[in-house]
Amino acid sequence: MSARNNKKIKPRPRKKSKPLSKHAYGAKFSKADRKKPGKSRASGAALLQSEEKYRTLFLNAPDSIVIMDLDLKVLDANGQFGIPPAEIVGKNWLVFFNVTEEDREFSVQLKKRLLKGEKVGPAQRKYPILGKETWVEFHPALIKKDGKPWGFQVIARNITERKQADDALRASEEKYRTLFESAPESINIVGLDGTILETNTFFGRSRDEVIGKKFQEMGIVPAEYLSKANEFLPKIFKGEKISPIEIKILNNKKQERWVENHISLVRKDGKPYALQVISMDITERKRLEEQLQQAQKMEAIGRLAGGVAHDFNNQLAVIMNASELIKGTFDKNDPRTEHFNMILSAADQAASLTKQLLAFSRKQIVEPVVLDLNLVAANLEKMLSRLIGEDINLQIALEPEPVYTKVDRVQIEQVIFNLAVNARDAMPEGGTLKIETAKTFLDEEYARSRFSIAPGFYVMLSVSDSGMGMDRETLSHVFEPFFTTKEIGKGTGLGLATVYGIIKQSGGDISVYSEPSTGTTFRIYLPMIMPKGQSRAGGREVVDETMKGSATVMVVEDNEQVRRMIVAILKNHGYRVRDCPSAGPALEEFGQHEGSIDMVITDVVMPGMGVKEFINRVLETRPETKVLYISGYPDEIISHHNILEPGTNFLQKPFSTRSLLKKVREVLGTG
Asked: How many other C-beta atoms can be found within 10 angstroms of the C-beta atom of residue 335?
């Protein structure tokens, strides 16, 4: 709009309308016409009356009405938007209203379309009217006279407030849509019949996969949980608040996840319309709770065992000393002496048991000293060879440099002997026992998974066997006192409980990795004593820019926690990552993935398909793909079971961020 239209003009007071001699469309009536008698005069009067009526409507319409000729010259206007008609009548629309070239082109195109006979819908433009940015909605129309184009009528409506309201609503919707879509929780609107109406993320599934479907049809929630809806829905409809509901669901990879659901009622027009379900993945919390419960259980058992051992030691002291006193009153050849020797022998064995119980309960008096774990393992080699027998191949692999830690020498030797005896018993037909030491760094990921250990540098002592292994149920009880899988009379069930107590008392951690028919690996982590000038606490491995990559890597690992850790490390360092829990889904992913997959990182022992068959099928279709095997077992134990060929690319768990990235680059040939 031109600058003159930006002036504030006081609207002139309208005078009372007089009969017009010329109406807006240009019809003329002479004085002679008005004086004509009869029918002609009556018609003229009616026409004048009609013109007066529509002129009044024209002037008082809430919208701005402008009449233009074919050259877009303004012939008439009703003076809305605060602009008096006298300001614009006689002016050209293109010059007066269209400030920019874009505006002028817009008006010219509208004119062309109207002259072609097109019906032009409402058009919206923004103009500076009287110094204010004003949104105007145009309703243009062609005016014909005697069947020929004569001019144009434009009805213009001020829609600024509506636009502002729409913009505010859109901004509000975008704001809450952003919050909705970026929320870490799964937010779902579910119809009262179970139909999913809206979702931001549905347990790994896209919106298109689930909108319009029912929970019951998708097999996400087990039936026993769906039946519980009948218990809480009536309470929700009554307006009662219900406690969060914890259930197990299946994600898009058919993996079980623990989910905490916060459910509330959504009303529409005052009536129940749907349920809002906010779901939080609490699988990690559940795992930590289980670890805490296990730790508390072990602590409680330890206290009980320690208390019993303490009291029983007092009784043993009386039994042993009283027996010695009575035995001393007998002649050496007295047959009763042998009976007291049996009592004293049994008391000695009982004292040995109580000593183990005290070690488990961490109440045993210890004398920790700084020692090199390499020397401890090396000094025990001959004794261990005699202990395990000739049919078991003993391998000892030591860290090239000294590995110092602070521990009671007798206790750490007891730990090694107990683990070696368990390994021997798990290999009745012979096998391989490997003992190794190493320096290692346990990062935040590992620390979070173990609950009771801090990140930093540690000395690792590993004892692995190629024996019969253990299932998950056995593993869950393996450190409990008096728990044993051995035959009656062949074990007290205190060996591993004692090991657990010693390691915890020494400020370390112990983990066990085992699969039936594959073997078992115990790993012990003890705080490393660093050389002077270096600090162990808060230590970190340095991962520099050279560790980054851009290859596409497939991670196949049935342990979800380990898989998520590997995926996070690789993604954080530039790799494109696909992941699957087992070989079957991984092969499907290979078939569907259009691009190249440069590398597969796979666990050696997986459910379902064997790793050899899996990799053979991968290499049949993609022979260029590199393979890195990972396992909780040492490579020698894996090779013993003929799972992997010697020299295969292998990385032993647990591994640090740096060691994983270094190995990946080495296998890809970029390291």
From this structure: 8
* 123, β-bridge pairs: 138
Helix (H) or strand (E) holding 275: strand 271-281
DSSP helix/strand/coil, 608 = coil
pLDDT at 40: 59
SS3 content of the chain, % helix, strand, coil (to 5): 40, 25, 35
| Cis check: omega of the bond before 84, within 30 degrees of 0 | no
Give me the pLDDT at residue 555, please: 93
Give the number of other CB atoms < 10 A from CB of residue 486: 12
Scanning 428-515, the segments in alpha helix (DSSP H) are 444-450, 472-475, 495-505
Average pLDDT score over residue span 243-265? 78
Nearest to 403 by CA among 441, 437, 379, 434: 437
- Give the integer Cα–Cα distance in Å for 537 and 176: 44
* Cβ atoms < 10 Å from Cβ of 136: 21
- For residue 77, what pLDDT is reported? 87
Q: Is 592 exposed, middle or buried (0-12, 13-18, 19+ CB in 10 A)?
A: exposed
Q: Are 603 and 611 in contact (CB under 8 A)?
A: yes
Per DSSP, what are the bridge partners of residue 578? 554
Collect all residues with Cβ–Cβ distance below 8 Å to 332 and sequence separation of at least 6. Answer: none
The answer to whether the peptide bond before residue 654 is cis (omega within 30 degrees of 0) is yes
Among 438-447, 461-470, 559-568, whose mean pLDDT is lowest? 438-447
Amino acid at 27: A
Q: Say if residue 335's pLDDT is above 70.
A: yes
Fill in the amino acid letter for 142. L
Three-state DSSP class for residue 519: strand
Q: Give first-to-last CA distance, the chain, whole Å.
A: 67
In Å, how far are 262, 281, 293 from 287, measured between CA atoms? Answer: 20, 12, 10
Report the candidate in 510, 500, 451, 509 with the shortest Cα–Cα distance to residue 286.
Answer: 451
For the chain, give the mean pLDDT: 77
Which residues lie across from 439 on neighbouring strands? 459
The 3-class secondary structure across 342-397, one letter per residue, is: HHHHHHHHHHHHHHHHHHHCCCCCCCCEEEEHHHHHHHCHHHHHHHHCCCEEEEEE
Distances (CA, A) of 218 to 65, 196, 275: 59, 11, 18
Query: Residues 518-528: pLDDT tens digits?
Result: 889 999 999 99
Higher pLDDT pick, 326 / 403? 403
pLDDT at 410: 76
Burial of 511 (0-12, 13-18, 19+ CB in 10 A): middle
Residue type at 278? Answer: I
- Rounded-to-integer distance, Cα 603 and Cα 622, Å: 19
For the chain, list the domains and their CATH numbers. 3-160 (3.30.450.20), 183-281 (3.30.450.20), 286-360 (1.10.287), 369-527 (3.30.565.10), 545-668 (3.40.50.2300)
pTM of the model: 0.43
